[in-house]
Amino acid sequence: MALKNKLYKEQLVSKTVTLPRLNRLNPSLESTALKIMEESGELAQAIGKLRGLSGERQRLEEEEAMQKVAQELVDVAQTAVTMMFVLEEQYGIDLEVILKEHLDKLRNKGYCD
């Protein structure tokens, strides 16, 4: 198993996720930030229940629990992308520049090539 994980990590250099701009919403910066916190709490709750950190007995098998964790993580990501749209559309932030700066920072810290 360790060899399989090592090979997987060596092959995986980056992950690209494309999430849509949501329709029929008029999010503000504040409402989106609150939604990120809500979704992050749901992610933490899913992880906590799996690990027994909430004082509850584990009710889900690990595979089912990891599916729930993955679903909550995507909810967090979707809400973060929504906030990116808010920053671009309402505040004129150029996220391409911000993303480039972020990648440069990661490279400078040695976190990626």
UniProtKB/TrEMBL annotation:
Keyword Hydrolase: yes
Residues spanning the membrane: none
A Pfam family the protein falls into: MazG
UniProt xrefs under SUPFAM superfamilies: all-alpha NTP pyrophosphatases (SSF101386)
Annotated ranges, domain NTP pyrophosphohydrolase MazG-like: 29-108
Cited InterPro entries: AF0060_NTP-PPase_MazG-like (IPR044548), MazG-like_dom (IPR004518)
UniProt superkingdom: Bacteria
GO MF annotation terms: hydrolase activity
Record keywords: Hydrolase
Listed name of the protein: MazG nucleotide pyrophosphohydrolase family protein
